[in-house]
C-alpha cells in the first residue's frame, strides 16, 4: 500500500494559512494612539482594552471597554450605563483618558495581601506574641503592614488630557 504525504502536507499548509491570516488581521487592527507632543512618548489602546474617560463638559470619569474604531471615533461598551451599552464617541468629544498599567494592578493586588496580613497581625497580636508580652510590637508591625499595603492605592494613574501636550489619533 502506498501512503502519500498529501494529507499531512495539506493540514500543515492549512494551519499555516489560518495562523498567517489571524496574525495579519490582528497586526493591522485599528488602535487609539495617545501621543505626548512634548516628549514624543506614545501610548496605544487596542480593541478590547478597558479604560476610563471623561467627556468635554462632564465632571466624572466613565469606565468602558473599547469595542471598535471608526475613522474619527470609537465604539465603547459601558457596562455601568442603564440604557445604552454601546456608545459611539468622537475623539474630539473626549476631554481626558485614564488607563491603569498592568504593574499598577499587580501592585494593588500585592498591597491587598499585605494589608490583610497587617490586619491579622493587629488583631491576633496576643496569640502571635505569646507570653512574652510583646504584643504591641506585633501590633506596630501590623500597622506598618497596613500602611505599606495602602500605598499602591494612593498612587494615581496617568491622566491624558487632550489639548495639553497630548493628542488622540486613530491609526491602522
Write the layout of secondary structure elements.
Blueprint: H1 6-27, E1 31-36, E2 42-46, E3 50-55, E4 62-69, E5 73-77, E6 86-90, E7 94-98, H2 102-123, H3 125-129, H4 135-154, E8 159-161, E9 166-171
Antiparallel strand pairs: 1-2, 1-9, 3-4, 3-7, 4-5, 5-6, 7-8
Helix pairs in contact: 2-4
Structure description:
Helix content is 40%, strand content 28%. It has 172 residues and is an alpha+beta fold. The protein folds into two domains: 30-100 and 157-171, SH3 type barrels, CATH 2.30.30; 102-154. The strands form two sheets. It has a six-stranded antiparallel sheet with strand order 6-5-4-3-7-8, with no helix packed on it. A three-stranded antiparallel sheet has the order 2-1-9, with no helix packed on it. The longest helix is centred in the first third of the chain and has 22 residues, at 6-27. Mean pLDDT is 81; it is low at 21-27.
Amino acid at each position: 500500500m502506498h501512503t502519500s504525504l498529501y494529507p499531512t502536507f495539506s493540514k500543515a499548509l492549512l494551519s499555516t494559512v489560518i495562523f498567517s491570516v489571524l496574525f495579519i488581521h490582528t497586526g493591522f487592527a485599528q488602535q487609539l494612539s495617545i501621543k505626548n507632543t512634548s516628549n514624543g512618548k506614545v501610548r496605544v489602546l487596542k480593541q478590547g482594552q478597558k479604560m476610563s474617560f471623561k467627556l468635554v463638559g462632564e465632571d466624572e470619569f466613565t469606565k468602558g471597554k473599547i469595542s471598535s474604531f471608526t475613522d474619527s471615533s470609537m465604539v465603547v461598551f459601558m457596562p455601568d450605563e442603564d440604557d445604552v451599552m454601546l456608545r459611539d464617541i468622537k475623539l474630539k468629544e473626549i476631554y481626558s483618558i485614564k488607563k491603569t498599567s498592568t504593574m499598577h494592578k499587580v501592585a494593588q493586588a500585592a498591597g491587598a495581601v499585605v494589608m490583610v496580613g497587617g490586619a491579622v497581625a493587629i488583631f491576633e497580636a496576643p496569640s502571635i506574641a505569646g507570653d512574652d508580652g510583646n504584643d504591641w510590637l506585633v501590633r506596630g508591625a501590623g500597622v506598618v503592614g497596613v500602611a505599606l499595603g495602602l500605598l499602591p492605592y494612593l498612587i494615581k494613574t496617568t491622566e491624558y488630557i487632550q489639548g495639553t501636550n497630548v493628542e488622540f489619533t486613530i491609526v491602522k
